[in-house]
């Protein structure tokens, strides 16, 4: 069973630039979520994709956008980077069920530093 | 909105002693509660979950959690701590409206030899 993989592991960008982070879901999972974890804090929900459509979004501005592909892999795009975007970005996948008891399976994250 | 709170930033225990990491929740409707652990420079790993049923939930690595509806708590426990249990622990609740998982701020557990 292949777990969730993210790339790159580290990234340094300049304020105002754009960034794309990538994620491959765990095999058999059809739902992918993205979280932002600032230093010393818990993960904050950015959005979730199911069947290639966004079906849930947290309190993040539109410059945070995403895609889910037919093979359930996903991208997180952030435009007009700000210093406060510096964080660990976590991708998580799960199998969507009618109940809500399926746990998230996380990748190891991408550490983004904005200077 | 659903939320969880972890009242302790840091918990220190001696190896071999029992450990408890506290979590309280605030939900409307049935709570779907989870515990995750995070090691340095890694993603979160699922430990256990409460959906319905027995109030004592058993999970990975010898951890268990006790669901208490009257106290709205879901404390993580282990009878005998190991040095390798030292990590950051997160309590979380599923928000069925937004389809997201809401995490607490985390508790850093340090187990000393």
Largest beta-sheet details of chain B: 6 strands, mixed
Q: What is the succession of H and E elements of chain A? A: EEEEEEEEEEE
Average pLDDT of chain B, to the nearest integer?
Answer: 93
Tally of contiguous helical segments of chain B: 0
Radius of gyration of chain B: 13 Å
Structural category of chain A is mainly beta
Number of DSSP-assigned strands of chain A: 11
Tally of separate helices of chain A:
0
Share in β-strands of chain B: over 45%
- Give the structural class of chain B: mainly beta
Low-confidence stretches of chain B: none
User: pLDDT below 50 for ≥5 consecutive residues: which ranges of chain A?
Assistant: none
Shape of chain A: globular
SS elements, strand count of chain B: 12
Radius of gyration of chain A: 13 Å
Order of helices and strands of chain B: EEEEEEEEEEEE
Mean pLDDT of chain A: 92
Descriptive notes:
The complex is a heterodimer of chains A (115) and B (113). Chain A is built from no helices and 11 strands. With 115 residues, chain A is mainly beta. In chain A, strands 2, 4, 5, 6, 9, 10 and 11 form a 7-stranded mixed beta sheet that branches. In chain A, a hairpin with a 5-residue loop joins strand 7 and strand 8. In chain A, 38% of the residues are buried. The model of chain A has no long low-confidence stretch (mean pLDDT 92). Chain B is mainly β and 113 residues long. In chain B, the strands form 3 sheets. In chain B, strands 2, 5, 6, 10, 11 and 12 form a 6-stranded mixed beta sheet that branches. A 4-stranded antiparallel beta sheet of chain B has the order 3-9-8-7, with no helix packed on it. In chain B, a hairpin with a 4-residue loop joins strand 10 and strand 11 (100-103). Chain B is globular and about 45 Å long. The termini of chain B are far apart. Classes of the chains: A mainly beta (115), B mainly beta (113). Chains A and B meet through strand 5, strand 6 and strand 10 of A and strand 6 and strand 11 of B.
